[in-house]
Amino acid sequence: MASINDILTWFQSLDKPNSAQFAAAWQSFRHKDDKININDLDNDLKTAIQSISASSAFTFSLLATLAERPTTGNGTTLYVVLENTTIYVWNGSYVSVGGGISITPQTWVTNVAMGDIPIGTTINITNIDDIVNVLKDGTTTIFYPALNAPSFSIGHNAGTLRKIGESVNVALAFNFNRGSIYLNGVYQNYRAGAATGYIFYNAATAEYAGMPQVGSVYTVNAYAVLRGNNTFKGKVAYAVGVQPLDSNGAASGTPLAAGESGIQTTSFEGVEPLFATTVNAATDTEQPLVSMLSGNGIPYMLAAGTSRSFAIPKSWTDADKTNRPLLQVQERDPFTGNYAGNVLSAFTATNVTIGGVACTKYTENVTRGDYGIKLIF
User: Fold this and answer.
1) Tens digits of per-residue pLDDT, 175-226?
2) Three-state SS across the chain?
3) Residue 148 · residue 177 · CB < 8 Å
4) In 71-97, which positions are buried (b, 16+ CB within 10 angstroms) versus exposed (e)?
5) Which whole number is the average pLDDT over 136-143?
6) Under a CB-based contact definition with an 8 Å cutoff, are residues 302 and 370 in contact?
7) How many whole angstroms separate alpha carbon 312 and alpha carbon 297?
8) Predicted confidence band at 84 (pLDDT cuts at 50, 70, 90)?
9) pLDDT band for position 52 (50/70/90)?
10) Planar angle of CA 129, 133, 135, nearest 5 degrees
11) What CA–CA distance (Å, rounded) separates 120 from 373?
C-alpha cells in the first residue's frame, strides 16, 4: 500500500504515472463494496464495539430500524420491531415477546387516523397476536370468516340412455356438501350440521317404499324403463351448524339453522333402438342407443349387397309420441367423407315389427358396395 504523500507526488502537474503507480494508487483505498472486517478496525474502535452489552446492541439496531406508531396515553412514542424471530415493543425501554408469552398491557391513544380508526381511539396490546396485528397495519385488526353455503345434488348409476321396457336396478345417491367456514384461507369447520335423514321420491314426488332410509343411497329395484325422461328425486335434512369465529375467537354471525334441502332431481332417457343392415344386407341389426328427444345427424355404413335398409321405431316419428319425422337421408362421399344431398326418395317405406317393436323400414333395392348414409330428423 502506497502512502498518500507518495501517491500525490505521482500525480503532480505534467507528471505521467506508470501502470504500476496507477495500480498502487487504486489498491491503497477500499472500495464501497468491500466489507470491513472487524480485524481491520482501529484497535480502540474494535474494543469499544466488543464491549457493548446485548441490550445496548439491540437499542442501536432498534433505533436504526424501528417503525413509529401512535403515541401512548402518557405521550411516549410506541414502537414495534421484528428482529429475526423476536418481536419487541419499545417505549423508552424494550421488552421481547415470543412463543405466545403475554406482555405488560400497552395502551395508547391514536394521534393520526388509520383506515376506519379515527384520531383519539384507545388501542390495547395484551398478547403476541396483538403485536403481530400492530406490526402489520398499526391496528388490532379483526379478521372475519368466509361462509360457504352447503350444496346438494342427486345422481344415479343407470347411464344416460336405456331401452324402453328394460328392467333395471337404479341406485340413487344423494350428494350433500355441508359447505365450509374459512378464516384467512384456513379451514375452520363445516357450515351446515350433519345430515339427519334422506328421503327419495319417484317422478310424481311420492316416497319410495321403506322411507326414510338410513344413509344417502337408495336402490329402486326392478324398475321398468319408460319412454322419455325417467326422473328420480331426493332431499336431505340437516342439523344446526357450528358457530363461526373471528380471528379473536369471538362469535361472528350466527350458526346455519337446521333445515332441509330443496328436492333435487336426476334422470335418464328411455328410448327405442334404431336398426340398420350394417353387418350384412339381409339382417336388421340393432344399433347403439340414440336420444329420441335430441339425436340427429345419425350416420350408418350400410353393408354391401342388395336391399340394404334401415328401420325407425314408430315412437320416433308418430305425432302422438316423439313426433320427430325423418326429413333427409344424406349420402356419404367416399372420397371426402362428407355427407350431402337427400336420397330419401331412393328408399321404399314399409311397416314391419322388429324384436316386438313397430317400425318403419326404409329399403333401397340397388346392388352396390358399402354405402354411408346419415339420418336427419
Assistant:
1) 999 999 999 888 999 999 999 999 999 999 999 988 767 789 999 999 999 9
2) CCCHHHHHHHCCCCCCCCHHHHHHHHHCCCCCCCCCCHHHCCHHHHHHHHCCCHHHHHHHHHHHHCEEEEEECCCCEEEEEEECCEEEEECCCEEEECCCCCCCCEEEECCCCECCECCCCEEEECCHHHHHHHHHHCCCCCCCCEEECCEEEEEECCCCEEECCCEEEEEEEEEEECCEEEECCEEEECCCCCEEEEEEECCCCCECCCCCECCCEEEEEEEECCCEEEEEEEEEEECCCCCCECCCCCECCCCCCCEECCCEEEEEEEECCCEECCCCCCCCEECCCCCCCCCCCEEEEECCECCEEEEEEHHHHCCCCCCCCCCEEEEECCCCCCEECCCHHHCEEEEEEECCEEEEEEEECCCECCEEEEEEC
3) no
4) bbeeeeebbbbeeeeebbbbbeeeeeb
5) 59
6) yes
7) 14
8) very low
9) low
10) 115
11) 85
How far is CA 174 from its chain centroid?
22
Instruction: Please determine, for residue 115, whether its predicted confidence score (pLDDT) is greater than 60.
Output: no
215: its cell numbers: 344413509
Closest CA to 304 of 362, 366, 370: 370
Which amino acid does the sequence have at 112? V
Whole-angstrom Cα distance, residue 24 to residue 16?
A: 14
Give me 69's grid cell: 406508531
Q: Is the pLDDT of residue 94 over 60?
A: no
Which neighbouring-strand residues pair with 361? 311, 350
- Residue positions counted in the chain: 377
pTM metric for this prediction: 0.62
Position 50: which residue type?
Q
Interval 35-46: pLDDT, tens = 777 777 778 777
